[in-house]
């Protein structure tokens, strides 16, 4: 059914955008670098009073605004039977429950390998339900290396089950 595919595409696009942000925010230690990059790109376009966080928020808003509007206009009943519809409803529920934006919810899902229960607990407490740390970009880069020593370090940090779930999540 086309509506299902279209919505699946939107969610895939959203996760891709959030993943790019996850990758860039985890690796940037100082947001002033981002600000300098932006001001050199568009020359005199930036006012001196504009901070890196203002620019960052503007970028996030423009990236996610369209998707949110499309979701709000679309009747949820048309896709309630599909897994995609459930994901959308869960994300909207978390946004309302914790008064956070779509970006924050998506990041929480990424850090918790897409697990609903773990993400819910993380949004409530800032920690994982099982006591292990959340995944970072650096951890994902380590995971991609086919090195038994590194894999064992990750298993020690996250537990074997979480490493296996993360590998499956990154492939999906």
TrEMBL record:
Q: Please state every residue range assigned to the domain named TRF2-interacting telomeric protein/Rap1 C-terminal.
A: 95-170
Location comes to: Nucleus; Chromosome, Telomere
One GO BP: protection from non-homologous end joining at telomere
Q: Which gene encodes it?
A: Terf2ip
Q: Where is the composition biased (Acidic residues)?
A: 24-36
Report the source organism: Scytalopus superciliaris
Quote the protein name from its UniProt record: Telomeric repeat-binding factor 2-interacting protein 1
Residue ranges annotated as compositionally biased, kind Polar residues, are 41-50
* Keywords per UniProt: Activator, Chromosome, Nucleus, Telomere, Transcription, Transcription regulation
Which Pfam families has this protein been placed in?
Rap1_C
Q: Note the subunit structure.
A: Homodimer.
Q: A cellular component term (GO) from this record? A: shelterin complex
Where is the organism placed in the taxonomic lineage, from the top?
Answer: Eukaryota, Metazoa, Chordata, Craniata, Vertebrata
Which stretches are transmembrane? none
């Amino acid at each position: 059914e086309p509506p299902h595919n279209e919505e699946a595409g939107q969610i895939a696009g959203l996760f891709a955008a959030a993943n790019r942000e996850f990758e860039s925010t985890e690796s940037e230690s100082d947001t002033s670098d981002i600000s300098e990059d932006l001001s050199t790109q568009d020359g005199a376009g930036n006012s001196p009073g504009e901070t890196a966080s203002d620019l960052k928020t503007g970028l996030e808003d423009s990236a996610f605004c369209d998707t949110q509007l499309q979701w709000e206009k679309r009747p949820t009943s048309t896709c309630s039977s599909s897994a995609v519809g459930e994901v959308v409803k869960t994300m909207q529920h978390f946004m309302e429950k914790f008064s956070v934006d779509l970006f924050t919810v998506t990041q929480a899902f990424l850090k918790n390998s897409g697990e609903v229960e773990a993400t819910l607990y993380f949004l409530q407490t800032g920690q994982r339900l099982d006591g292990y740390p959340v995944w970072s970009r650096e951890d994902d880069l380590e995971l991609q290396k086919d090195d038994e020593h590194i894999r064992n370090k990750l298993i020690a940090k996250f537990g074997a089950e979480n490493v296996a779930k993360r590998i499956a999540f990154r492939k999906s």
